[in-house]
């Protein structure tokens, strides 16, 4: 009687081994399918141009650069040059010739006796085609 029980256990072990090997193959196939490729000049699905451009960056230096057709914007951390270009062209109806990106790192700040951190951000400097202009100061 013990022999019959042993055969059943061995057959059961073989079946579970076959199932686990199939599962491993399926997981590898799913990982390969999850990576969607992004085409150049295409905004990521689910993002809106207002999510890419957070705000215009207005300082004395950026105001002087506006005379050279260069405008500065604070942008989202996960955006890249092509996303920023598409967003500016769509939102302001202008033609962008060049985009430069600067990552500003977080900085330490003292708050009384405590040390805190000022969060970093990403800034984009957008150069427009000659003759195009963005009206940042409407009604002023």
What's the structural blueprint in terms of helices and strands?
Blueprint: H1 2-33, H2 49-52, E1 53-56, H3 60-65, E2 70-75, H4 81-92, E3 96-104, E4 107-111, E5 114-118, E6 121-128
Antiparallel strand pairs: 1-2, 2-6, 3-6, 4-5
Question: What's the short version?
Answer:
With 140 residues, the protein is of the alpha+beta class. It has four helices and six strands; from the N terminus they run ααβαβαββββ. The chain has helices spanning 2-33, 49-52, 60-65, 81-92, and strands at residues 53-56, 70-75, 96-104, 107-111, 114-118, 121-128.
Largest sheet: 4 strands, antiparallel
Measured by DSSP, the beta-strand proportion falls in 25-35%
Which term fits the overall shape?
flat
N/C terminus separation: 97 Å
- The helix-strand sequence is HHEHEHEEEE
Low-confidence blocks of residues = none
* Class by alpha and beta content: alpha+beta
What is the mean predicted local confidence, pLDDT? 80
**Number of DSSP helices?**
4
Percent in helix: 25-40%
Main β-sheet, spatial strand arrangement: 1-2-6-3
């Amino acid at each position: 009687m013990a022999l019959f029980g042993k055969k059943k256990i061995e057959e059961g072990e073989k079946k579970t081994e076959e199932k686990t090997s199939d599962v491993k193959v399926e997981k590898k196939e799913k990982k390969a399918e999850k990576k969607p490729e992004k085409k150049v000049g295409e905004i990521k699905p689910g993002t809106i141009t207002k999510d890419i451009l957070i705000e215009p960056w207005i300082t004395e230096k950026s105001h002087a650069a506006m005379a050279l057709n260069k405008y500065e914007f604070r942008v989202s951390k996960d955006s890249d040059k092509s996303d920023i270009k598409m967003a500016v062209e769509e939102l302001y109806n202008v033609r962008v010739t060049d985009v430069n990106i600067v990552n500003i790192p977080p900085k330490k700040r003292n708050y009384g006796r405590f040390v805190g951190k000022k969060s970093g951000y990403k800034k984009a400097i957008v150069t427009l085609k000659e003759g195009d202009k963005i009206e940042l100061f409407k009604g002023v």
